[in-house]
Amino acid sequence: MLPEFKDKELLNTALTHRSALNEKSSSASISNERLEFLGDAVLELSTTKYLYTKFPEEPEGVLTAYRSSLVKTTTLAKIAVKLGLDKMLFMSKGEESTGGRTNIGILADVTEAVLGAIYLDQGVEVVDKLLNEILFPEINEIIQKKLYKDSKSYLQEVVQSKNIDTPTYQVISEVGPDHNKEFTVTASVGDKIVGRGIGKSKQQAQQAAAREALKKFDAT
Question: Any catalytic annotation for residue 109?
């Protein structure tokens, strides 16, 4: 599904996690972090163009909510697996042994890096075409299940309507270096855990936990 690269070394760089540089397991001389920075901007522009065109009647606030749902960490990680990037990644043996190939933060980052590399190698039209195939169709489920709503606020509304305790959130793990942390958070109602979420920030993990909790309340 990935396009054929003219510059193979550009793709190698996009697939090189910073840990691989220590063991020289990649032919790249730098990690994918700069390409990730570029790819993040390319992804946002491509997604914004798509939503702007597809939903001509929707106001800015709704389009922003749709975009946030489309480009969230967990979705980008799933795309990495769809494209096989999890198997193609260059990383150290240590990083791999601690679950690097299934780390949603690393997977989301490599997706962005590869998009940045495609943009440099072949232009924005090829990026748009790929995203139309693997990402943008997700918007139908997002709208159908109201996943674009702020999940914490929505969960709060649901529990209030049922006259039960206000949800609380607790960080149960925080792993990884400062530049690439992964947080796991639980959402509880009373003394019962109703959701668990993972994200690159506490806020993202809380939203993921709230989304999981909403499924239990049949509110998605």
Answer: no
Told to judge if 40 belongs to the known catalytic residues of this protein, a careful annotator would answer yes
CATH code given to domain 8-144: 1.10.1520.10
* Catalytic option among 40, 95, 109, 121: 40
Among residues 134, 78, 68, the alpha carbon closest in space to that of 107 is found at 78
Q: Which of 95, 96, 109, 112 is catalytic?
A: 112
Question: Domain 151-216 has what CATH class?
Answer: alpha beta
In the numeric block, which tokens belong to residue 90?
Answer: 């260059």
pLDDT digits (tens, 9 = 90+) for 169-193: 999 999 888 777 899 999 999 889 9
pLDDT digit string, tens, across residues 9-68: 999 999 999 999 988 878 899 999 999 999 999 999 999 999 999 999 999 989 998 998
Distance (Å, whole) CA 91 – CA 15:
9
**Stated pTM of the model:** 0.75
